[in-house]
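Appendix B. Raw example, untouched.
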Amino acid sequence: MQKTPIQVRNTQPPRKGWKLYLTLPILSWALYDFANTIFSSNINTVFFPFYLDSVIGSSEEMSQVASTFISYANALASFFLVLFSPLYGVWIDRTGQKKKYIVWFASISIIGTFMMGVLALGKLEAEWFGLPAELFLVVIMFVIAKFFFNSSLVFYDTMMSDLGTKEEMPLISGFGVAVGYLGTLVGLTVYLFVQEGSPEQAFIPTAILYLLFSLPLFFFLKDPAPKYKSKQSNVSFLSGYKEIWSTFKEMKSYKNVFTFMIAYFFLNDAIATTIAIMAIYATAVVGFNSGQFIILYLVSTIAAIIGSFMFGYITKKIGSRNAIVAVACILITALVIAALAVAQWMFWLAGSLVGIALGSMWVTSRTLIVELTPEEKRGQFFGLFAFSGKVSSIIGPLIYGTITLSLREYGDIASRFAISSLAVMAIIGLIILFKVKQPSHNETP
């Protein structure tokens, strides 16, 4: 798309500290991170897996079927995101609008979450394939809610560049991440109102919190006037796919970047799948009850915060490629311990290490992408890495769910084999990562 820039002079002095964070647009934007993190932690990681295990997991074999439901539902939501996300960039370019799409997508996600609660609590009398009919409807609502949740994030992340100057971006980004982690802590307070054995009671309160903290963005944020005028008003929606393919072909000329993208695919595959199955693995295989897992998840979140902070300094000290190697080793260690865990303390250790890896992976990988890519093509490469991450979020859950389904008669062994497959993916990613060369500071990509 050809664009003619409109010259805009920014005479505003840089803002610092609370003068930056407490401006209404930035605070409203950050509170949406708070809101959607409540959905991500409560639904995706904790209470939806608990619900499936409570409905399906009547035996060790059926607990493996519950793992399969979780894995396939996550894979399906990721599939739709891969299918449609290339169109979103075209929509942004054509309209310059982000807030409108966030409002629509977030609202549908909130409604889907609310309907999960309505259907789960409704207890339909019918059965489908020997399982309660409402189970399948709740899974469908989950796929819808997660797809639109992830879709809203495409526009939400892009909106950040409208909130301040280039110098303010790291501060704004960090503020959003910090507020998002607070959303995890606040969202889990819902557990105080959930009766043991009835995790579906968390769905409607989560939807209400999701809506409540989204309202500031809905009402107080506005899209700025577009900085560019498009010379082509009718750009094909398919151009989003063409751009990805064009960037992918061009990336082959940048061997170092292409190698890292493959390594990142496997590492992200392992991390994304681990997040999705962590709750049901802890409860069905290691013997955690729901309250113990909530505490474990809080500890893992704190570890993620500490890890992201620490690896900022570690990356600066040893280089981004070496830092990612360290993160990959931590992830592999965590997955091996989880696969072999025969006592709860082992999974406490594994969960903490997963948190460190989760908090550190994007900090280190984002830095390496910047170092490996030429500045004029950086946006394209970041887009391709994001697309690769979405594809890996399909493959990992599919493999995990297929293993637990195929080996379900072996009970817990099925889940241990499945989580071992994630360790194998991470090891493959690490081996490929060793082929990536760390550029020197004065080296041009």
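End of appendix B.
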